[in-house]
Specification:
Blueprint lengths: L1 H12 L13 H7 L7 E2 L2 H7 L4 H5 L4 E9 L5 E8 L3 H10 L5 E2 L1 E3 L2 E3 L1 E9 L3
Antiparallel strand pairs: 1-4, 2-3, 2-7, 5-6
Length: 128
């Protein structure tokens, strides 16, 4: 009887498998590993380009450049987050970042279902 009790106590003290070992990857991870069948399609990018202002300080200083952002779009086609791929200049990157949450997309598709996906978008600032 004592041996059975000790065996049960030892089993209870053993650590089981890691909780993260069997977890499914997040949708963003799945998309990164498996590209969508259809990329996100911008719905209001032209409006964002028109709304985007040239920062006054950058304009007066003659600063030109290109800002390229990688934007994560969710299953509803909404902005989630972004990463700077090419900053150009901090003033320009800050101006772009202000407008990114307004982006709207038709969501990416994988096997006929909407999925999260990353999309790269360039913004060019050039004095006319």
């Amino acid at each position: 009887m004592l041996a059975a009790l000790l065996a049960c106590m030892l089993l209870a003290c053993q650590s089981g498998p890691s909780e993260t070992a069997g977890e499914a990857p997040s949708p963003a991870d799945v998309t990164a590993l498996s590209p969508p069948d259809q990329q996100p399609r911008p719905l209001n990018l032209k409006d964002i380009y028109q709304e985007l202002g040239y920062p006054q300080a950058a304009y007066e200083a003659g600063i030109e450049g290109k800002v390229v952002v990688k934007v994560l779009i969710d299953e509803q086609g909404q902005y989630v987050q972004h990463e700077l791929l090419e900053e150009g200049h901090a003033l320009l990157a800050t101006e772009v970042a202000k407008h990114l949450p307004k982006l709207q997309f038709e969501a990416a598709q994988k096997d006929g279902k909407p999925v999260q996906a990353w999309v790269s978008i360039p913004f060019v600032f050039k004095k006319s």
